## 1
Amino acid sequence: MTNVLVCVKRVPDASSEVVLTADGQSVDGRFAGFTMSTHEECAVELAALVTAAGGGEATALTLGDAEAVEQLRAALAVGCTAATHVVADPQRFGPADVAREIAAVVRDHEAAGRSYDLILLGNDAADSGDFQVGIRLAYELGRPVVNGVTHVSVADGVVTASGAGTDGYETYRVPVPAVVTILEGGVEPRYPTVPGRMKAKKVAIEERTPAGEPTGPNRVKLALPPPVPSNVQILGKGADAAPAVVDVLEELGVLSR
Amino acid sequence: MATVPSTARVVVIGAGIVGNGLVHHLARLGWTDIVQIDKGALPNPGGSTGHASNFIFPVDHSREITDLTLDSVRQYQEMGVFTQSGGFEVARTEERMEELRRRMSSAKAWGIEAELVSPAFVKEKVPFLEADQIIGAFWTPSVGVVDSLRAGTIMRESALEAGVLTVVPTVEVTGLDTEEGPNGRRRITKVRTTGGDIEAETVVIACGVWSPKIGDMAGISIPLTPAVHQMISVGPCPQLEGTEGEISFPIVRDMDTFCYERQHGADMEVGSYAHRAILHEPEDIPSIEQSKLSPTEMPFTSDDFDLQLEQAYELMPELLGAEGAEMRYAINGLLSLTADGAPILGESEVSGLWTAAAVWIKEGPGVARAVAEWMTQGWSEIDIHHSDIARFHAHQERREHTRLRTTESFIKTYGIVHPSEQYESDREQRLSPMFEAQKKLGAFFYETAGWERPHWYESNAHLLDVYGDAVMPREHEWDARWWSPIINAEHLRMREAAGVIDLTAFCIFDIEGPGALESVQRTCVAQCDVSVGKVIYTPVLDARGGFKSDLTVMRLGVDHFRVVTGGAHGMADRKWFTDHLVEDGATTLTDLTNDISTIGLWGPRARDILASLVTDDVSDSGFGFLSCRDIDVHGIPVLASRISYVGELGWELYVSMDQAAELWESLLEAGDSHGAVPVGIGVYGTTGRIEKGYRAFGAELDAERTIIEAGMQRPKVKAADFVGKQAYLAQRETPPATVLCTLTVDDHTSASGIKRYMLGGEPILTRDGGTLTDGHGHHPYVTTAGSAPSLGKHVLMAYLPVDQATVGNQLAVSYMEELYPVTVGSVDATGLFDPSNERIH
């Protein structure tokens, strides 16, 4: 039996033109909408697979404003069975603050009899890209940590985490309890099912206030890079363009002559 | 960066289903040098067409929308992009079954095959539906789905192949230039875009949810709002695996939950109109680059959909809960909504600037054809006056109005809407001077053109005892909804004594100047070159000889005419007269609607009442029928006009707004001893007029009807030219294809024993239920239904086939799927009540 805690963050969804909020402190999701980071979608999928394989419960956790409950419900719809919401303005929390808040939840749950063998996070958040929460959390809890893997499984008290490394495919084995941060690409996150979504709606979500005062992200301002000049090349018009298109497709390896 | 041509004969803005349909039909009708632009890339530039569900249920309670839909289906079929699937509208409640029976009326009236079927029938065609969730269904075999993007491409390419079209995608409109014309009206001159400017005298705004933003650039209001329609796609469903083509199962509209389920390959799409109204401003729609999917596929807000998900699951648990079936696509799709639900079509107040917006896939190609015809010849085969952009009054052009009304009506998309149902939001926009006094009288207000109009007065409830069963009480809640027997009591009292009626909602405009006579002569069928002080009732025709309007004109001076017309259609009439004004720089049209109030006084005691308040001679010889003049009533200056829409002796009294309340009080006070009461529009608009066989524009009269068919021809046609004269002369020489008749209901008793009263829209059939067809291929339906208390009958008006139009002919009306016997009472404009018109003298 493996209990998994998977941490997710409400972030703006992707669009080809990034829109910033007026204060330059964050990406504006009013057009593209909000989601959880792709890395975290994979983490949720792995949490569902790990608990399905070995039994146990997958709990989703977020720190965010009232709307972030949407991301918890999304996690609940695809395999998580419990959720905790630290209700707070995420803009006021830096990575060290978030790590401390997650640790506080883990300790409180443990004290209440719910311990986590495995804590999964995304490698980095899609909006702020701090790359810090996982390792700070592991340090805070005194647990081993593996960063940036695409696969994870648990058997006999050992977490096996693997993924592409700089020198080839790497596999790590660490004892439970452990912290692992996930990169997208290893698993295909499932879409919610209708019954899954209906079930998710009915789960009572634990709401908490932050355990401490945040020190803040110390972010000065986000700025957009200069627009990338269009590199569209017109290969031709009508039937005359066909040979050029074939060349491109061959170059891409889609077809061979 | 794409660049546009510097000139064009016509610029079409938008490449969705409407814009593409327009370029096709304009090309077909002989237009050349057409330029079509869109800010997106082709074939899917990112508007509402790109994410449409693309299914078509043909039956609507509106004839106009149904005809546009049928024409669209025909066009889609010709293009080979229509796949017939059949469709069910399922009922979970008895109330809905009754609505489906009413839908049968519309299906029969519009000639569309449909039937009411059992849950087992539905189950046989849709095996994954839980039959015990429903109690019946409305089955339309001709329902189908279309490929609207492919249709758009086919239509656009047909114009390209004809060599008359230049298409420029990925350019955005940045401005519309106008200039002042000689008649004071602005006209369009130029479209500015990110790819250069195009000089053009004709421009069509056909860009769906963005249209208001583009309209603003020329200072015109296109009052639609982008609104969210949520939909999800669930699959792959094993039950749907192996299906081939576009669609294999009938579409199910789950009417009571405002949802639909539409199979698409191995997926089931669930769409909803049940969620809260989620409205956006056109300016807040993201650009293509800012959107995740497309500008009109907004992020799905799952909370809003949760209830619908459960309801859809109730209906199709095994399919939607199947192993492996996931919600793979979910959007808040943007579509266009208007305050009254109708599209926004036609030329705006800026000459040459046209609109074709708030159109759905089911009407798209039909609308495109109609608008192209209108642009080409001034009229369209299908009458589209309900959708005319000229219909909007100032208060309706506010975004606030659209927002409030669509918030209220969104939930009615699949709702059961009574034909007389009134809006609750954005009321009291225009108040007659008598409003406060009327509230004290317990007026029940209906709204017309923003005006609050008393439909009846609770203060007259005591008359119910006076008249007893003569008020024709209605037992059934539906028949009596938005109605009161007090209307009929007021009617009887008016016929017995007199009634005072507030007609402030009239649209009134003066045409003055050296070209005034010519302006009204060329617009009106009736002779307008009459003596000063004469009142003219006249049809107004389009070039085809169909009705544009019917209204009254008073000649107040040699060069001064006053046009009085109904509030609902008044703005379109004003545009028509403006369009036909003599352009001599000196002849003007002035709208006096907000300056003049009108009060009607009618009934056998009307003359006694008026005489007690004036010093003038108001006898028949001193103040003849169809004459008007200034008099003082109780010291108040009034323009009195001896005319009647209720068939009684009396006057319309035109009075300055600030003195109207005083006039109202003095008329009621003077009338009291004569038995006069305030009378509502229930009498004026329905009971009083239909007893007299008076026609109403929008009900009996529209652009698809002729003077001959309506039985309104006069012995002579004036020598002066007028719009539609050639057509009218030809109509007079040809036997009509259909004849407007007045019928009475012989027996109201339904199978349950409850007496039922038709409300309008029902099909007229042979006595044994057989279909009737007129010379146009149309089936007769009730254009107006209402009580005729003075006859003790319920009266229906309908256009019948010529061979059925004989007095005494026995037919039937179908109401809620039961037949009631009716008899033809009149086959021309002769009233059933006082047929020799003695009472008006």
## 2
Amino acid sequence: MEFLQNMDWMQLLRCFVVGGLICVVGQILIDKTKLTPARILVIFVTAGAILGGLGIYQYLVDFAGAGATVPLTGFGYNLAKGAIEAVKESGLVGAFTGGIKAAAGGIAAAVFFGYIASLIAKPKMKKQ
Amino acid sequence: MKPINTTQEYQNYVDKKSPNSPILKNCFNAFWVGGLICSIGQIILNICKSRGMDTQMSGTVVSIILIGISAFLTGLNLFNKIGKFAGAGSLIPITGFANSIVSPAMEYKSEGYVMGVGSKMFTVAGPVLVFGISASIIVGLIFMIFNTQNITFV
């Protein structure tokens, strides 16, 4: 368990607090507005992409690590960052390929595990 | 205390006794569950980095593991219980994205594996991907325009 000795506990605390606070923002949106969870997810991803594009989100990622990248804003940030880096390398085409390339692992895992998990799930029949 | 006789009185009593308490409790639960999920991500990230992976790759591994776990927890009907308790604490992290794929897919399983599961998976995830990807393309295009004019944008 050498990673436990190398663990930066302050880093973990910053991650916990920032990740928690981002979720609190979402909770306030759920409780105080009539937005559906789907819209909130869309808002978070888009906000992350915009903040990522402006370079603001990078500071949060440097500060909090996974506390900023694990929430869906981090997914948006990842997409935007990928697009920017690909534009630097290959210009116009990069704007189209970079985002998904950076987020490919997450998207593919979500589709694959999502489908498998749905297949093995016990169909809970509830009449609505 | 005055006895409560009518529904109206009861409503007033409830309103007086519980100002904002549900939202505070919800926020507290969202805070620590969300923080915990991110911390698990951070621990996985540190393990990956100590094995010599770069930041981009480690981040991808974290996403894949968290998505995998929450997809299967949703399939086993356990994630809904966490979700009821934690609200946004489990919705906002990437676990919520996986959950939003599996739960509608499960519900429409009876409509078949292609048009049921295969298409309903994207009821919520579809819009997320549409807006996320579109936003990233726009960011890339804007960056390209500004970058070619040598304005430091990021």
